[in-house]
Amino acid sequence: MNPLSATLSRVKPSPTIAVTTKAAEMRRAGHDVIGLGAGEPDFDTPENIRAAGIRAIEEGKTRYTPPDGIPELKEAICAKFKRDNGLDYVPAQVSVGTGGKQILYNALMATLNPGDEVIIPAPYWVSYPDMVLLAGGEPVVVPAGIETGFKLSAEALEAAITPRTRWFIFNSPSNPTGAGYTWDELKALTDVLMRHPHVWVMTDDMYEHLAYDDFKFCTPAQVEPGLYDRTLTCNGVSKAYAMTGWRIGYAAGPEVLIGGMRKIQSQSTSNPCTISQWAAIEALNGPQDFIAENNKVFVRRRDLVVEMLNAIEGVTCPVPEGAFYVYPSIAGLIGRTSEGGTRIDSDEAFATALLEETGVAVVFGAAFGLSPAFRVSYATSDAALKEACTRIQRFCAAMT
Question: What are the GO MF terms of this UniProt record (predicted)?
């Protein structure tokens, strides 16, 4: 007898985790592997944040807290939203979870009924569709390809909305493309949403502070205050503060939604790590100057990777506005054969052959809902990136 539920059969494991795991296994087996799959800064958590966590331990702040966060952290989150986004929230409108993923999952579980639709622009973060499926909803994937800068048009959004649409998931700057929407581009989308009052907005702002050049971050409820009462503004400390393993995500929105999310969390994980919560307070309230310094490093790495990948015949790599990913198209390589004899008939075949023949681990585009492409995370050292891109250049040049 199969003990697994029918619901579980609707989803698949995370492809990004699978790539990272395979790369680690090859490394343990003695292979020279460069992993460009993980979405994780290689910077250490800043010292003042680490010290706040240590201080919490030394002061005995190690017991259970309210299920969705301590009051002090919720107050810091409210101050952050006011300071950075011009959004007014009170602590009762805030939920803190064990990472940004739990926040999104709780919201979907609290709101979706069977058959409800969730609009997801592609390329998308790999977990969005599967979380919708687990919650009983139906993902409605809308392509936003390289020809539009990986940005969804107002016309495409309008066409995707039906009476069954419950949520629109929005991510800028984007994982996997790094594409960021300008104020005017986002206003075009919010104008559409204002015409459809039954559609709620789930905005994933995790890469808010990783914005480069002249790009200015903005979020839907900031651009269109009329959406405030049906927007869940989600964020976290993982990326900008180099706190991936601390597992703190948060969101603010209508109290009725936050209450539903709290109920789910109280019966699943209960509170996020107490020590991490106190460290997150320091992250949000403490010095922010290191973010700009880290971003200078990310821009240098971005430019290195974009230049080296665009030098490859058959590869097109747009310059992203933020995050720490590039999403090059390999349309010009489909149908060719690698030096090791693999026919490149898909981006998954490309990524598999690249790893096996050169030891470079990337994530294939189909995992993000838009092919043929692959994702590179440039959140690693300049030397590793240069070597990896050199291997990718040789790999592609050797194709027949």
Answer: L-aspartate:2-oxoglutarate aminotransferase activity; pyridoxal phosphate binding
